[in-house]
Amino acid sequence: MLGLYARALEASGVATSMITILPEVTEKTGVPRTLHVPFKLGRPCGEPFDFGTRKKVVNQLLEIAEKPAGSYLEYEN
Questions:
Q1: DSSP readout, 2-51?
Q2: pTM (2 decimals)?
Q3: Which residue did the predictor score with more confidence, 16 or 29?
Q4: Half-sphere exposure of 2 (CA within 13 A, CB side)
Q5: How far is 65 from 59, CA to CA, in rounded Å?
């Protein structure tokens, strides 16, 4: 569902990037930029209180936001 909002925002000129745990589902919605993370469902930024991992996720998400639409990154630990 959020992928559809991302596409609409992109169409109006706003760059978006999203975290995905299920890339095969995200790909079907046509999300412009995605960061695939290997975490459990419900924990897209890692375990609670693991601030180091969360910071890495956010930094990589911001990194992909600067790339062209259609970009896809795997989370790098």
A1: HHHHHHHHHHTT----EEES-HHHHHHHT-SEEEE--PPTT-TT-STT-H
A2: 0.87
A3: 16
A4: 9
A5: 10
